[in-house]
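Listing S7. Sequence submitted for prediction.
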Amino acid sequence: MMTNDNVDNGSSIRLDEKYPARRVLNHIGDKWTPIILHCLASGTRHFGQMHRRIPGLSKKMLTQVLRRLERDGLVTRRVLRAVPPKTDYELTSLGLQLHEPIGLICQWAIQNEDVLDAIDKTRAKQAED
């Protein structure tokens, strides 16, 4: 559990590219990575299952993100001998640990859709001006 002693108020630490929060966001802060990690949090998924479950995500982008997550040790890939061939993906223990804060963000987003709608509306209006 995090105590106040472990929380940085931003005044004593340089928030440069080595800052841990910036480093983790560099790994997971793109459009699709958190969604893919969240999709895999409920268990093993076939490539096609994930592609169908995440609208707007191309097969090429899904492949690229999954390869990067596998290379980073967050996801394991298993090719099944079947006709046609199938590939399973699953979060590693590190991937499950990283999903914890992502899951909290997803939960917050679901519970605060009205807040997100208001922000989107404000941004759209500002873009028109």
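Caption to Listing S7: primary sequence and predicted structure tokens for the chain studied. The longest helix spans residues 93-111. The helical segments are 20-28, 33-40, 47-53, 59-71, 93-111, 113-128.
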